[in-house]
């Protein structure tokens, strides 16, 4: 598994959705939702089983399943990590790091996590129309995982409105951030570049047993794809 640090959603020209989102906006980031509800994988964990680190790799969705969710047949895994990211240098407001980037070291620090698996999936090339991140984080207990979920909800709520990130050339990217959509065990939020005509990124986070599942889905036709990703992963845990 490859290790290292990288900024998510930021391409060489500093945009974060896709070239299809708007003329003149380069997006390395970001997706068409599959009808129906998440179905349990026959190879999923036994019902009620505690999740261990050896289970984490099996929880991430295969590329073909991600392709069904976002409407692409050309996805490939471009990054695989077993450690967190540090995108804090790309943030204007460090208090909103959790709402702007996925699987962040500073966000998860001191929360009782024990292991992480993180993937970036997209089409080949610089102007890829879809960008996906899926991460599963193991915690010492169900309580630690639930506490992290609850704190994430509060943090995301505090970042509604607008926020600024910086691309690899340190140019600012302004985002419009939606209200949080919240359920008992899942939260989601849309962020859209202020220059984009359409599209954006959906961020979703869910808790199941002693695992937190986090996903980003970015692209021209985004609405609930990140939620679909976390729902499917959770269905294989519960």
Description:
The chain has 238 residues and is α+β, with helices and mostly antiparallel strands. The chain has one domain (53-236): Protein Transport Mog1p, Chain A (3-Layer(aba) Sandwich), CATH 3.40.1000.70. Helices cover 21% and strands 28% of the residues. The protein contains six helices and nine strands. The chain has helices spanning 53-59, 63-70, 97-100, 105-108, 142-157, 225-235, and strands at 76-81, 113-122, 130-139, 161-166, 172-177, 181-182, 186-193, 200-208, 211-219. Strand 8 and strand 9 form a beta hairpin. The longest helix has 16 residues, at 142-157. The model is unreliable at 1-8, 10-16 and 18-48 (pLDDT under 50).
